[in-house]
Write a structure and sequence with these properties.
The structure is a single chain. The protein has helices at residues 18-33, 68-75, 79-84, and strands at residues 2-9, 39-44, 57-65, 95-100. The protein has 103 residues and is α+β, with helices and mostly antiparallel strands. It has one domain (2-100): Alpha-Beta Plaits (2-Layer Sandwich), CATH 3.30.70.100.
């Protein structure tokens, strides 16, 4: 299984609409990618390692797939639509990582 993680780094002047992300963007993405998506989660950054320090990321989205190929085949045809929706909830350039789930 693989996990596709989308990180949204925090910083001055950066905005993020969690309501839109959770209730519109992620459901739209899941609908477009269909059965290829095995699960999804959203995380909201609360703080850093030191007490009172800010979170490095405003939010993180995670989607799970059986394989890299499954992700690529489902995402590819919808990439323009999915990426085109980003300005509706943030001005942050997302950082994307594909990982193998070990445990």
């Amino acid at each position: 299984m693989i996990k596709v993680s989308i990180f949204y780094p925090d910083g001055d002047g950066k905005t993020f609409n969690m309501d839109y992300y959770a209730n519109s963007h992620i459901p739209m993405v899941a609908g477009l990618l269909g059965d290829a998506v095995k699960g999804a989660s959203i995380e909201k950054g609360l703080g850093g390692a030191d007490p009172g320090s800010p979170a490095q990321f405003v939010a993180m989205g995670n989607m799970y797939f059986d394989s890299v190929e499954s992700f690529q085949q489902s995402f590819g045809p919808h990439a323009v639509t999915i990426m085109g929706d980003i300005p509706n909830y943030t001005n942050i350039a997302p950082v994307i990582q594909v990982s193998e789930v070990v445990v």
